[in-house]
TrEMBL record:
Signal peptide: none annotated. This is Cytochrome P450 2U1. The gene is CYP2U1. Its EC number is 1.14.14.80. The keyword Ubl conjugation does not apply. Keywords: Endoplasmic reticulum, Heme, Iron, Lipid metabolism, Membrane, Metal-binding, Microsome, Mitochondrion, Mitochondrion inner membrane, Monooxygenase, Oxidoreductase, Transmembrane, Transmembrane helix. The lineage of its organism: Eukaryota, Metazoa, Chordata, Cephalochordata, Leptocardii. Belongs to the cytochrome P450 family. It catalyses: (5Z,8Z,11Z,14Z)-eicosatetraenoate + reduced [NADPH--hemoprotein reductase] + O2 = 19-hydroxy-(5Z,8Z,11Z,14Z)-eicosatetraenoate + oxidized [NADPH--hemoprotein reductase] + H2O + H(+); N-[(5Z,8Z,11Z,14Z)-eicosatetraenoyl]-serotonin + reduced [NADPH--hemoprotein reductase] + O2 = 2-oxo-N-[(5Z,8Z,11Z,14Z)-eicosatetraenoyl]-serotonin + oxidized [NADPH--hemoprotein reductase] + H2O + H(+); (5Z,8Z,11Z,14Z)-eicosatetraenoate + reduced [NADPH--hemoprotein reductase] + O2 = 20-hydroxy-(5Z,8Z,11Z,14Z)-eicosatetraenoate + oxidized [NADPH--hemoprotein reductase] + H2O + H(+); an omega-methyl-long-chain fatty acid + reduced [NADPH--hemoprotein reductase] + O2 = an omega-hydroxy-long-chain fatty acid + oxidized [NADPH--hemoprotein reductase] + H2O + H(+). Heme binds at residue 420. It is a multi-pass membrane protein. The chain crosses the membrane at residues 12-30. InterPro entries: Cyt_P450 (IPR001128), Cyt_P450_CS (IPR017972), Cyt_P450_E_grp-I (IPR002401), Cyt_P450_sf (IPR036396), Cytochrome_P450_fam2 (IPR050182). It comes from the Eukaryota.
Amino acid sequence: MSVLLPAVTWLWSFQTLLVSVVVIITAVLWRRSSTAGLPPGPRGLPLVGNLFSLSKDMPLVYQEWSKKYGGVFTVYSFSQPRIVLNGFSAIQEALVTNADVFSSRHGEQTPYLSDQSAKGLILEPYTPRFKEHKKFTMSALRDFGVGKKSMEGKILQEAQALSDVISKKENQPFCISRLLKNATCNVICSIVFGSRYEYDDVKASRIIPSLKKGSERFLNNTHKLREHIREEIAKHKDTFDPNDIRDFMDAYLLEAKKREGDENSTFTEEQHVELVHQLFLAGTDTTANTLHWAVLFMILHPDIQQKVQREIDSVLGPNQVPSMEHRSQMPYTQATLGEITRMAATAPMTALHFTSSDVFFRGYHIPKATRVAVNIWSVLYDPELWPEPYKFDPTRFLDDSGKFTRREEIIMFSMGRRLCPGEGLAKAELFLIFTSLLQRFTFKPPEGGPMPSAEGVFGLVHSPAPFQLVAEPRK
């Protein structure tokens, strides 16, 4: 046995190695045959593909690869291909010109959903359910003030509350990130729940979502928020009056009541929970992060902050509250917000799209149900569109006469049929809160402290690295 054992062990190891080689070769050949016709892309490793090259800074990695492979290329996560779209032209051609094919989502299971059929809007494939619920959501948001004067009042109320809290800092250094999340979360609360929370209310910590946390903390935060939404649904059911629709929650309950007895109704309680949950995710963290970037850029560019303040003073004076009607009188402020939005790139990648059918796109054959990654960063930081893209320059958005010029390449809210339904609300918040803050404060780094960094942190959102500031009240 002592003589035979080494030989048997060697033979077993050799067979294992041989089987492994055969499996790898088979997998490679199968992948090549099954993905023939896809756009070329960076070479990956057997079995795992490009997995080890896909870091948390994926938007930057994708943009760098596009220099070699163009606006459309393929990467692999294990054997699963993913088409990557870079640049305004490729993204517009896919999401707008070929919207029928590139507008869907995957139908795979989502860990935190107890009812996998209730996917809200963000996770729902492009189905009649999606169209029905998007139409309802857009209508309900309009009914409760989005795009109307009444919504401005809610945002300005929150801007005033935020300014009052900042005033209490009395020139002491602090981090503004949490306060901005409180403010934007309260705007959503006013639409969805018909109420808001004071900044020191412990309940507020349960409902402020975050897209920056690690997966375990994110899931814990998601669980708390969803439980709070369920509690609010129960309260709204107890006090529901079909003749007095108070907020988005009531609007959904009314729509569900109209469909009672219809076994095909998609207005279920789980769909209600997920839809409201996504309104919080989309309407709180991204807008708060963009405002966080806005304050950071004003600290880093005090000359631009002064120009914005001079324009605010000339139009509003020290006491008049801003209105969306003032935008046309404040071109430099609009231009500054345009540049903030571009450089913040708060949502650098969209949620994954899926093709709903086979398609020939730019000379390549892309099969049905292929994942498609849309790199928004590649547009907002394209040097051909924005010379010296890492330079903060509001004049990119001004014409020769000093008037504000809209740029179609600012696609922070995506394009086509998956355009964010909260775009109008987010733009109103950015303008009204930003002008309100700069009307009352000048933002500076703490005396003797380091200047904050303009280099952001990538995750589900692109956010500033934590920093301290001083808010000096303006005379």
